[in-house]
Amino acid sequence: MKVINGLNGLKKKNFVVTMGVFDGVHRGHQKVVNSAVRRACRLHSSSMVVTFDLHPRNIIFSEKKVCLLSTLKQKEKLLREIGVDVMLVVNFDRKVVNMTPGAFVRDILWKKIGCKEIFVGYNFGFGYKRTGNINDLKKEGKKYNIKVNIISPFKVGNVLVSSTKIRQLLQEGKINIANRLLGYRYKFSGTVVKGKGIGMKWNIPTANLSCSKNVILPHGVYLAGVFYKTKRYGGIVNIGFRPTLYSKAGKKTVEVHILGFNKNIYRKKVEIELVKKIRDEKKFDNKEELIEQMIKDIKGAQRKEKKINFNET
Hints:
6-stranded antiparallel beta barrel, about 30% helix
């Protein structure tokens, strides 16, 4: 897959396009993107995903930031796996923000991209403050002979799959359901930073992670996969406020114990994959009870790690 950053690096070509933020590239997004990829194959053309370097809502409504399900790099990896030919990353600057729906279709889809067919979700919105809807896209597309295909909603059971719903589930710690809606296990990354060495004193070493403010960090203790360089390790992640050790809730922390691991990864970047919630974080009466619970969690994780089916979500 070729990645093009900005419209200036684009050479006009007849593309089958799909467009959107695609935060998380969840199963609903996958349905839309797969439709475009299959259509491009049938037409012996190329498929293109048009997305943005920033989440539009974080620019338009800057006072209420949206936490993201995926970074641009993660999005790129997921789209590559689907089989997309080109990922075009549009700089979401003031010029793009203020474009009318008509100007967006004319200047970007038609003039810049050379779009001949586009696939979008049922609730697609575009142009200035998302004032353009599907009917506007069809109307403007007719002017430039762009065929518009609308993809119906995707449900898992009775749950409508959306980025908003997945964010809600993650914030509630409902990782199993969130993973089913994503179609893969939720991941986030962080850099290992210096802690107070308490885990090492207890012979249960943990790595403290510094993560982006835009990442969703669901509260609780989780069975996890830990990716370092090219290898995956099993682990336990605690996300919370360490109430047994600190009486006042401070900044939310992320600590990971990596099973069977003894390398120095200080200042290194790792990726965390949340597999299953083990329990809620709780305040124990003393540190001895906390240590006992941590040992139980580790033994349980060691047993479960052997049984993990990596193809399941």
